[in-house]
Amino acid sequence: MEQSKQEVQNFQKGEIDLRAIAYSLIARKFLIAGLTGFVTILAILYALNLTPSYKAISSFTSPSSSSITNINRLNLTSETKDSVFGKFLTNLSSKDLQKKVFIEGDFITSFNTDNIPIDDVEAFIYRATKSVSVHSPNLNQAQKKLAFLTELPYSITIEGNSAETISEYLNTLVTLANSETIIGLIKHNELKISNRLYEISLERDLLIEEAEKNRFSKIERIKEEDGQKIRQINDQIDRIRYEAKENRLNQIVVLNDSAKLAKSLGIIENNFKLINDGGAKSDLTIAIGESKDLPEWYLYGEKALIKRVELLENRISDDPFIPELVTLNNQLNEVKNNNLLKTLKMRQDDSPFIDEIAKLDIEKTRLKSRIVGMNGVSAMQISEISNPQKSPIKPNKRKIVLIAFFGSFMMSVLFVLIMDVLKPDEKDPA
Predict the structure, then answer these.
(1) Beta carbons within 8 Å of 326's beta carbon, 6+ residues apart
(2) Tens digit of pLDDT for each residue in 227-262?
(3) What's the pTM?
(4) Which of 15, 92, 292, 348 qualifies as a FRET site for 75, CA 20 to 30 Å off?
(5) pLDDT per residue over 143-190, tens digit each?
(6) Neighbour tally for 64: CB within 10 Å
């Protein structure tokens, strides 16, 4: 029974305490309001003096098919959309390129709006560009399934105090990254062209050298073949001359024998007159230098036969009496004056006679005519250029003020409660 009364008293005492707390808070409402208002005003002043930060964004997709075709038009490179776009993204993310744009675009002045003296330019540029970030498309599961239908863009962002300045910087950076990528592709293409031109020059020289060696080899073969033909013809000429000489010597012996026989028979003069007068048989056929049925000793007589022997013995050369020599000498002269051999010896340049040289020269001309800038070629396609944002991304002034208000209010209440706890109890004896 006593325990129940004690619990009722404790409950009543607790209820009295809550009322006391409420009365205490009401009694010190001006203190709470003052502290809360003071802190809130400080927060408002703080928020108003904060420098706003803006965010600039630009988006782009991979290059067009026509650009890739133009890049690969010489068949010296095999670039794809992904490879060219990858080079562009690499250049875009390069801190060196970001620094180059910052310096060459005079963004040091644009970013330093307060004209504060800059002791460390490198550190200033780093702070200004450290927020530059390239973002790949954030695909959900459904977009991943449909990615082959629609290409989602990549993006690049930067944060800064001036919306106009960071947007201008971002657009300049994207433009220069694209330009640097194309310049790199042009240089790569020019290097490929230069290497190919060098290869063509080597191939051309080797073909000419090979053709020249083949020509010299052909000249030597022709010389050897002509030498063999000359020896064969000369051998034929020597055999015919020897045969003609033997025939002449044999003829001398025969004529000498006929002359001796004519002398022994008393036939000194020729008998052509007798034959012509019909003294001989009518069926005899006589021709000059030739007889039929009548012997030479009777027909010519001793004097004519001796004269013929004398002529044969005094003959210097038998060549005029050898008909075959005309043909053989013509053949010999033709071989000695081989026109093909003369043409090959006099040739100064073998290139017109090499089919591969013409093809290489055409390719060389085509390559030289295409060492020019790639007009109309781009390493990406702009989806959205960066435009200055009207609303800053931070600070959130409203959030700062609300946090300050509620925080200061709670702290003021807590402060009042602490004051009540520390205050001496008036009912307690002094």
Answers:
(1) none
(2) 999 999 999 999 999 999 999 899 889 888 888 888
(3) 0.58
(4) 92
(5) 555 454 567 889 999 888 888 888 999 999 999 999 999 888 888 888
(6) 15
